[in-house]
From TrEMBL:
Keywords, sorted A to Z: Signal
GO biological process: cellular response to iron ion
Record domain Fe/B12 periplasmic-binding: where: 96-371
SUPFAM superfamilies, sorted: Helical backbone' metal receptor
Protein name per UniProt: ABC-type Fe3+-hydroxamate transport system, periplasmic component
Organism from which the protein derives: Alistipes finegoldii (strain DSM 17242 / JCM 16770 / CCUG 46020 / CIP 107999 / KCTC 15236 / AHN 2437)
Keyword Signal set for record: yes
InterPro entries assigned to the protein according to its UniProt record, in alphabetical order: ABC_Transporter_SBP, ABC_transptr_periplasmic_BD
Keyword set includes Cytoplasm: no
PROSITE patterns hit by this protein: FE_B12_PBP, PROKAR_LIPOPROTEIN
Amino acid sequence: MKRFPPLIPLLLALLGTACGGSASYTPADFTTEVYTPAYASGFDIRGTERNAATLVTVRTPWQGGSGVEQHLLVLREGIEPPAGFDGQIVKAPVRHVVCMSSSHVAMFDAIGQIRRVCGVSGIDYISNAYVNEHRCCGEVLDVGYDTNLNFERLAAMQPDLMLLYGVTGENTVVTGKLRELGIPYIYVGDYMEESPLGKAEWLMVAAELCNDRSRGAETFGGIAERYRAVKTAVAGSAPAVRPKVMLNTPYRDTWFMPSSRSFMIRLIEDAGGEYVYTKNDSDTSVAVDLEEAYLLASSADVWLNVGPCNTLAELTAQNPKFAGIPAVRNRMVFNNNRRQTPAGGSDFWESGVIHPDLVLRDLSLILGGKPAEEGELHYYKRLE
């Protein structure tokens, strides 16, 4: 007589096979180091011994978000979505991505994966050539802004993932609606990084989503190497007295001065300059009254990042007193809007985030007192 295996063990074996791909996960299951950033503090990528799934963990994704963590589970190689995972889930490689920040667009462009971007926020302010070439045929769409997203359009698009950014916290109205629509999302905190190379290193998240980790590492490695080369060259030829640098212009009668820990100050220091404002070591910009700001500007050798201004006349029209500032008299005012869209979107805040090596080169020329002809600078221009 033919013998059959006991019924209960067989059922358990079958259930184990059937459910193996959808076993539950927790972040604690991901203990294998896949990518630990050298400069960025806001993310890491870990793997598990079970399979090829990886976990992208984002930390402090917005101002005041210390202690906040978000998780994105990246599945690949036919792995089924697990049951009970407390986080967002996406299958790699992603085919269609919506980027709510222009810097996210630049990340995909830097690793040669820009074709995966199908939606952006504020398309008129995006500098990327691919986006502008493909907006007319509807291959890249504008999904609106964080406070007024076009959810009907998003529902029709059904992107594989949305990359969000938050200023002071999660927009629960947006994330709640995205969950309702079944659209995975993750907050990207590149703008929170204090290191210029830390900001650029977030392109490794885009590379992970595209199954192109090696391309990401190669791209970022080149950026970091070029940055360090410029920094070393500046250090070897720095004058005894560094040029003092003023930043920004008033906004509604208030002058915001960045923290001495911010990425912009790191760039200025690595380029051989000295920031004029040393009172703010927080993680945000602080408001300075106009009189104090005017005194700071008057002590500066160079004035950078002067808002929408394209000429010295436009700058002095904001306040006639600016005409007496030494940096204005000496034509040492430079703005980071050389590359901008007709609507005023600045590529400095797009590709410049991913290419701090080019930004540092610009600043080293400006602060080094070398002839900064129009063709030499990439993101900056001298105001005439």
